[in-house]
Specification:
The chain is α/β, with parallel strands linked by helices. It folds into 2 domains: 199 residues, TIM Barrel (Alpha-Beta Barrel); 27 residues, no CATH class. Helix content is 41%, strand content 12%. It contains 10 helices and 6 strands, in the order E-H-H-H-E-H-E-H-E-H-E-H-E-H-H-H. It has a 6-stranded parallel beta sheet. Strand 3, helix 5 and strand 4 form a beta-alpha-beta unit. The chain is globular, with a radius of gyration of 20 Å. The two termini are 20 Å apart.
Length: 236
């Protein structure tokens, strides 16, 4: 299974100056690695000056490494925080078409879309944004630049929320093409701008050869390696 990730200094940790400086110092070593599709999530949490400093530094890194950005919007005072986020991105000259603003709700979606950003919603079972609320938003605004995410974090979350949201949108009568755009194509479009993610990665995967080692190591632990027959000449 091919792995993709976004990597960055979360605004919650940006308020620890020593930690933030250490992360910002080492971050460039990772941004150019295979499978990194965005810099994030970054942005504001408590909307402090330390968060602003780290945010602006990482916007510069995203521009340097030609990566899309994924944004964390504040849990509190979200509308003002989302507006400040977009103002900062625009002041730094970052292209909205390369930026996903996440953790939106009904208060923020209109301005995020109007200003040209990708508008994402992370679905949680009992807090923040729920499946039915998402379906109502897609019914109202359509599928353009809207993305649905799941979470698997330290709180009560559901990594299957994207699939469940698709079923609920179908129950609301939304067209299959609309649902597919929201749960699949939009995310692929923006994160594919990194050059690290393409639909052919999973539709036409490279042949498997489990004899291949990584750093001299194998994950087989005594099992017989799988070697796809259409790749008989692979050099180990």
């Amino acid at each position: 299974m091919r792995h993709y990730c976004a990597i960055g200094l979360n605004p919650k940790e940006a308020n620890n100056r020593e930690l933030a400086d250490a992360v910002l110092d080492i971050l460039p070593r990772y941004l150019g690695k295979e499978g990194v599709v965005a810099l994030g999530e970054i942005g504001y949490d408590e909307q402090t000056e330390q968060e602003d400093r780290a945010f602006r530094a990482q916007i510069e890194l995203a521009q340097e490494f030609d990566l899309p950005i994924m944004i964390h919007t504040p849990h509190r005072d979200k509308k003002r925080g989302a507006k400040r986020t977009m103002d900062t991105l625009e002041a730094c000259g970052f292209n909205p078409a390369r930026c996903v603003i996440d953790h939106n709700n009904e208060e923020t979606v209109q301005e995020v879309l109007d200003r040209g950003y990708w508008c994402a919603f992370t679905i949680y079972p009992s807090t923040k944004m729920g499946n039915d609320r998402l379906a109502a938003i897609v019914e109202r605004y359509g599928p353009e630049r809207i993305i649905v995410d799941s979470a698997c974090d330290w709180g009560v979350s559901d990594p299957l929320a994207v699939a469940k949201s698709a079923r609920i949108m179908a129950a609301h009568g939304l067209d299959e093409a609309v649902i597919r755009q929201v749960v699949y194509h939009n995310a692929l479009a923006v994160y594919g701008l990194s050059g690290e993610m393409s639909e052919t990665d999973w539709l036409e995967p490279a042949p498997v050869d489990q004899r291949t080692l990584y750093g001299g190591n194998s994950v087989l632990r005594g099992q017989a390696p799988r070697v796809d027959q259409d790749n008989p000449d692979r050099i180990v």
